Amino acid sequence: MMINRKSAPEIIDAVNMKLQLKPYDHFILDNGVPVYSIDAGAQDVLLIEWVFYAGNWYEDKNIVAATTNFLLKNGTQKRKAFAINEHFEFYGAYLNRSCYNETATITLHCLNKHLPQLLPVVAELINECIFPEEELAIYKQNQKQRLEVNLKKCDFIANRLIDEYVYGFHHPYGRYTSTLDYEQLNRQELVEFYKRFYTEGKCLIFVAGKPPADLAQQLNHSFGQLSINSHTLPEIQFNCEPAETKKYNIINDADGVQGAIRMARPFFNRHHPDFQKAQVLNNIFGGFFGSRLMSNIREDKGYTYGIHSYLQNHIHNSAWMISTEAGRDVCGATIEEVYKEMAILCNEPVDDDELDLVRNYMVGSLLGDLDGPFQIIARWKNYILNGLTDAYFYDSIQTVQSITAEELQALAKKYLNPEEFYELVVV
Amino acid sequence: MGNDLFCTFFLTLDMILYDRFVLDNGLRVLVHEDPSTPMAVLNIMYDVGARDENPEKTGFAHLFEHLMFGGSVHIPDYDEPLQRAGGENNAYTTNDITNYYCQLPAENIETAFWLESDRMLGLAFSEKSLTVQKKVVIEEFKEHYINKPYGDVWHKMRELAYTRHPYRWMTIGKELSHVENAHIDDVKHFFFKHYRPLNAILVVAGNVKLENIKRLADKWFGNIPMGDKYERNLPKEPQQTAARQSEVYANVPLDAFIKTWHMGARLDKGYYVMDLATEILGGGGSSRLYQSLVKEKQLFSGIDCHHFGSTDNGLVAIEGKLVKGVSLETAAKAVEEEIEKIQASLVTETELQKVKNKTESIIAFEDMGVMSRANSLAMYELLGDAQLMNTELQRYQAITAEDLQQTCKEVFRSENSNTLLYHSK
């Protein structure tokens, strides 16, 4: 059989596929803690995430939120750090914790059959942590050392500084940590933060996998009687204080062979009417492998291993960011090409062929992103924490399907202005 | 801990089902149907990695992987039509294999067949693509191995631990000049030697039907010339007979300690035993090294025990950064004491059960994604039998405390060890 290898097989345009965001099951524990659950698993595994409003947004002093979160596993009234770790690891479970800007989380991955042994100990971490002095001392010592290593990396420095330029150091999104911050931490601050923002704090629970039939009872039994949710959250507002100067060149390592380039402009949060449209424009610009920045700066010029642009995933406000590590001698040329690509987007409408490709790519990868319970709950979590509903999901597909080249060009003119971008190179 | 902890958890993991057939040109095809996903995955694994490189032209397998995206005989651009079909793809190279995978809406699976078969048929061998990708790979090299503190650790350790076997260089290559000097003739030669149907495994997984995949495999891959079977004949690493040590002075803030020992090959029993041993020593907050050396003695700010999952005889490593003020000598001695402990007495039942339970979890979570299942099927087929994927857990479950002690005694011998003392200058 002769086949024609030159022409592509027929495809169904992904952009026309019917995408559904599987709705969650919802219930409320006795103390008012809401639970959102996705039952979509084939394997008997479970992800449970406890989200507390305990991010650095709520701390009075730098790094208190992150330290409190980190030390949740390091001692309760009943168990030492080793015993806590051993308990979860014995059951093949993974208990992680992470601190973000508004929120901080505890995440459990486990096999369903071990859930009854694990939930009571998670409750202990929310209710009975003691923050032993010796654990804090080890943490300080090791974190200071880790920071010292990170400060040798140009990408680490660049990530800190660009956020500071965009938001200001006093904003939780622009703040970063010094050795002195670690030294000045004291146990009492952690105890107080813990009580206010975990034990009595605002909590949401997200579940995904193949939840057991008695999930609600199990959660209520371990968490429904705790004092979480006993206060309303304090209303705290921060104003961005963007830097005056727009361009920065920093030498961190005189012998460095690459520069970390960051370019960013302030942007809005997901509630702004331009946000979803900007996501489409961003994809064309630098959002995927076939984007203009990748095609030009990596695939044509070979200046870098990778270059990306994205809208930061923050709740209050965002930034439009371009990020790459490029050869030291081509950093200037790379920045110049980024501006050239911005200018092309402002001056020429995107042609139909490229726009069709991006539409199909975006919907196809969304379909792939929704494959599996953990992915579905992650999307829901993002919507819920951002105060959005599934209308946002269907609107964003609608935007991808219907946005025109003219709208994209207008958007580029509105936002991709070089003079509004901060520009940073750290060697 | 209560007695309930000592029960054995029996296998509860589902079997991964698949069909297997071989095309006339020798291409092995595995199909794993999973109607629960709207997606399909096409995964092609080539039986070639950095270990198959000429010692004077290292980094080539990986550079070649980049060139696979630079256009094929009939299709100028690989990525664009795939993205148009709603798909995404990537690839990776290791010391053992090179793997290419793409995922797209299942309705468009034929696009993946069209693209993958054309680049197995032949590349465009474009000079421009070679020139650009050499630069890209050089930037990748710099980003990960030069412009990072401790970035050269594994480069140095491999050279210390291996004297003959090609695991003595990293996938990225021994030096930048090897990548810089790559020539288009090398590219052609490499392609026709390694990228033939006989040396490849195709796995299609997801919302697909066996009959349709048979038809598509035959249609798109059936008439690609089979090529010659690549006979791997690598120099064997001689048994190490004396401890080796090397010292490095670098512009880093902290001293680091890195030590390795030679261990079993991927299908040896000793491999599975050592896999559990690394968990007992270094897996998580209740592991021995972490508890003893980071928490109690506070000699290390972090410590890790791992192995490389290599197909041929690999390395097991213990590595960590030291707390300031602690000497490398003290740190080395403390590690040695933990090694002696695991050799002198049996691990406890709790420890053994813990690491078996962890292994069961790891397998269950890995098997969740269809892409991961496709990759595993290809890897096990390459190792000799895809069915191994379904018997892995049993192999781990069968390991006893005595096995662990025995293997630790065999592997963690001083004369089998390589130590890298990485000093802050």
Provide tags for this entry.
heterodimer; A: 427 residues; alpha+beta; Cytochrome Bc1 Complex, Chain A, domain 1; five-stranded mixed sheet; 15 helices; 18% strand; B: 425 residues; 2 domains; six-stranded mixed sheet; 11 strands; disordered N terminus
Could you walk me through the main structural features you see in this protein, from its secondary elements to its overall organization?
The complex is a heterodimer of chains A (427) and B (425). Chain A is an alpha+beta fold. Chain A is built from 15 helices and eleven strands. The model of chain A has no long low-confidence stretch (mean pLDDT 96). Chain B is an alpha+beta fold and 425 residues long. Chain B folds into two domains: 19-221, Metalloenzyme, LuxS/M16 peptidase-like (Cytochrome Bc1 Complex, Chain A, domain 1, 2-Layer Sandwich), CATH 3.30.830.10; 244-424, Metalloenzyme, LuxS/M16 peptidase-like (Cytochrome Bc1 Complex, Chain A, domain 1, 2-Layer Sandwich). Chain B contains 15 helices and eleven strands. The radius of gyration of chain B is 23 Å and the shape is globular.
How many helices of chain A? The count is 15
Name of the top-level CATH class of the largest domain in chain B? Alpha Beta
Low-pLDDT runs of 5+ residues of chain B are 1-11
The major pleated sheet of chain A works out as:
6 strands, mixed
Amino- and carboxy-terminal Cα gap of chain A? 57 Å
Which fold name fills CATH's third level, the topology of the largest domain in chain A? Answer: Cytochrome Bc1 Complex, Chain A, domain 1
What string, H for helix and E for strand, traces the elements of chain B in order? EEEHHEEHHHHHEHEEHHEEHHHHHE
| Name of the CATH homologous superfamily of the largest domain in chain A | Metalloenzyme, LuxS/M16 peptidase-like
Q: Total strand count of chain A, please?
A: 11
Please identify the oligomeric state.
heterodimer
Q: Between the first and last Cα atoms of chain B, what is the distance in angstroms? A: 47 Å
Portion in strands of chain B: 15-25%
Name the average pLDDT of chain A.
Answer: 96
Q: Low-confidence stretches of chain A at least 5 residues in length (pLDDT < 50)?
A: none
